[in-house]
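Run folding on both entries below.
>entry_1
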Amino acid sequence: MTPQQVLSDLKKNQYAPLYFLQGDEPFYIDQIAQHIEEQALTEAEKGFNQIILYGKDTDMPTVLTNAKRFPMMAARQVVLVKEAQELADLQQKAGQEMLSQYAQQPLPSTVLVFCYKYKTLNKNLGLYKKLNQFAVLVESKKMYDNQVPDWILQWSKQRGLSIEQQAVHMLMDHIGNNLERLANELDKVAINLDKELTESITAELVQKYVGISKEYNAFELQKSVAQGNFAKAFQIVYYFAANPKANPLIPTVALLFTFFSKLLLVHQASDKTERGLASLLKVHPFFVKEYRTATVNYPLPRVIRNIGLLRQADLHAKGIDNISGTDEQILKTLVYQLMH
């Protein structure tokens, strides 16, 4: 099942006896576990019927002994195994066989949850096959960058809010695909909307409550370079030089390298439709216009040259063959060379 399907069932008060939550995206694992921890039992029931274990401090016999216990004065009990990837005997055949046997006949009055973060079980294991057959097995996958804008829009919509595209761009550029941070920052803005007398998350509110400069951030630098707007690009470069801790050089170079690498793909693409380019670049369709504009300002030979300049700047930023001096000098030289 997908994380969204599980959360939907839980909100309908539909609980399964056994959940195995795995994957390299911890956000949804935490969301599901938190919902079960907070909602499966009343506050009065939790004292006797909610057990929280940690993988590093327990073992499979202890987990299953607790799972086989009947609830006290409640319809169900909850056993949560957090950081289950640290459970030593889940990596061993004996522990896997114990859980496989339990999965086939779990106690219906127990909700047993394994939070197996940052990794997944081998699909060839007998345990994986049993869990897939008898339990609720969830894989929480890391989100691709091109999926993040839609996720931000959906997260806002679920809370009855709208969000400007510029605000989406700023959040994605500043935070990337870290869903936990995105959710926290969106919630931080949402809490202040009543005070701002609006139901829309604007770029100005993101700037105010998340602490992202609307005019001076890496995304705006990329945009200015793409448009060939030299004056704006150097305004941002000077701002970065005055705030080096908030705008480190290496991630800025990496962002520009990614941009020109994708621009190379646009030049060579056979399908130059909006949908075709969005699929090729793995970006949201509303980013495609920027790449099309940039292909006019940067013909193929210049793109190839700029990729070389960016590789060189990356080495200089890391102290290799550094003849340019400080981070400020490296960035100024780089942006001037990219745009001339």
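>entry_2
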Amino acid sequence: MSAPTTPHRIVFANEKGGTGKSTTAVHIAIALAYQGHRVAAIDLDPRQRTFHRYLENRTETMKRREIDLPTVRFEVFRGETAEELDALVAELGADVDFLIFDTPGRDDPLARHAATSADTLVTPLNDSFVDFDLIGQVDAETFKVRRLSFYAELIWETRKKRAMATIRDQRREMDWVVVRNRTQHVEARNMRRLDNALTELSRRVGFRVAQGLSERVIYRELFPSGLTLLDKGHLGELGTSHLVARQELRQLVAGLNLPQPLSRTGAGMTAPQLTAEEA
């Protein structure tokens, strides 16, 4: 009998709401399920529980339409302590390839605890200096980065501690990915300024930048059904913008550079099929 493996932990976290964090997390979770992986997920926001509700809606749609879609095991965490969270993590992560956490859009001790254990930490940001301020402050005249913001300092310290654990406990290094969500065609000079600021800060604190999901109405329209852009054949007729959105999602999945453990299910789509799927 082979030894049990530890699931790759993906934590979606920042301290600001309205960045498309839960929508991104759901689509990544379902993309991994389409690749044939076993995926579990924990919603750490028992008040809003957007991630949990999205997957509840998916389950209800499958029952109502009598269809079978790739999905994930999911729970909303209602406990109060890190020990209780660790117990739930041990239970859900016992036989999965990936364990996903969706955290509240605010400073939260349990979100911090989850972040310290992340193998891949995903921080979605709206494509503006308002959201950039979460991780770094810029000069009003030059737009050069003046200092790290509190959240970036927190993750920097977390990664340093994690680096020590990586050597001592043979754990994976944490990969921090800042995802630029809700991008729009805005004034080119502002885009260059933001690009430069992200590049400068990424070199200082060691995160990678990935292109995320654009601002599109379809994401809000899909929520009540729990369907995703990958559920071809169940979405009706899609327009050109929806097909472009699906390609954005494929690029984001590839940009996260997640490991590809051998599926335990022997079912589902493989990674190449998902990437090459034609809408």
